Amino acid sequence: xxxxxxxxxxxxxxxxxxxxxxxxxxxxxxxxxxxxxxxxxxxxxxxxxxxxxxxxxxxxxxxxxxxxxxxxxxxxxxxxxxxxxxxxxxxxxxxxxxxxxxxxxxxxxxxxxxxxxxxxxxxxxxxxxxxxxxxxxxxxxxxxxxxxxxxxxxxxxxxxxxxxxxxxxxxxxxxxxxxxxxxxxxxxxxxxxxxxxxxxxxxxxxxxxxxxxxxxxxxxxxxxxxxxxxxxxxxxxxxxxxxxxxxxxxxxxxxxxxxxxxxxxxxxxxxxxxxxxxxxxxxxxxxxxxxxxxxxxxxxxxxxxxxxxxxxxxxxxxxxxxxxxxxxxxxxxxxxxxxxxxxxxxxxxxxxxxxxxxxxxxxxxxxxxxxxxxxxxxxxxxxxxxxxxxxxxxxxxxxxxxxxxxxxxxxxxxxxxxxxxxxxxxxxxxxxxxxxxxxxxxxxxxxxxxxxxxxxxxxxxxxxxxxxxxxxxxxxxxxxxxxxxxxxxxxxxxxxxxxxxxxxxxx
Length: 507
Hints:
The protein is of the alpha+beta class. The chain is 53% helix and 17% strand. The strands form four sheets. It has a five-stranded mixed beta sheet with strand order 8-10-11-13-12, with helices on one face. A four-stranded antiparallel beta sheet has the order 4-3-6-5, covered by helices on one side. Strands 1-2 form a two-stranded antiparallel sheet. Helix 1 (3-65) runs antiparallel to helix 8 (246-302) and helix 8 runs antiparallel to helix 10. The chain is rod-shaped and about 175 Å long. The two termini are 59 Å apart.
């Protein structure tokens, strides 16, 4: 699969997951907002119903207070005898005179028979009396209303809105509006000072948008205003209970997103590994092709009779075949070194005490000819006083050789190659070995991956620079096997420095 295709699929899936999460989040926010609005509306309706009930209760209180006076009013009381042959009137005049009037017989018949007689005047007087008593009763009712308006606010708020009554009304109205959850309330004056409050009322713990306020007795004077405050400790849980079904959906979406990202990372890693292996195979083929071609050419020359007659030519051809065979064997050994890169297996080492200064001096002497071939120089600054290390001498030699060989491969063609190998004591129990060059350097993006197997920097893919991308990986593996550490410092176009630290063995 092409890299562009992987990126295209990645972008499409990322946009899809982002859109899905966005829709879920927006839907959840809308549900929460709607539930909040419904909750607030229900609380407001309940508080309004409570205040209305308190006003009605106060009206009933004043009416009951005047009921005795109303019962003694002048409204006529009608009574009939057992044989229903008359009507009895009881009345009280405005001057306080009381009296009874009894009419016997059928009232309708008497009314018809007495019409136009001398009793007419008496009948009209009776109607006037009844009308007067009705007007007087209306006056009493008006006085009750005036008492409610003028005297109700003078009563203590504790009497007008009893705490037990308020709590009962709140519970009833909240239940009627479907708000079956605990609440706390308080009645406060216009200064905000509590008149009384429920046991668990704590205003500072009400939370955002969770304190509801309603005016008690809105017809009172402003300086006598009182308010009821209510909040719900479990409101948040009540609101979010309705969106809990969305939580598993979001969790599954996040899991899918994580799995998708992990799959994409694996795909890129696999693609990178495939590219490195292909690069390794191409380089290996090129490395093997040269010695095989040389050996094949030498074999063809041996078939020439004139060549077989010349001892010098035979000696030269045999030396070429021997050198190319060694070169081929060396390449095969480098390929076999891949088995050592399995993290689950440790390489078989023959550890012994060796003098790092002596080993490095021998390597410098041997490598000097190769460096001078390219017009360069190699210097050794062996300043370590405690240079005994416990390593496998063959692998340690290969480590230093690989670092020097890398410096030659990645030399800068514009200036003479200069190599430096140095040792120094950095503590009582460790030695530092530094291999520095003035080559082309390594870019910062490549520095963190130079020790990965099969990995080669971009300039390493040129035909004039051979290798499998195993050298530095092998060096890293061996240094760690010797209980040491290796790091690299480089500046592009200026040079590279490899720093190896190893524990020393004290005599």
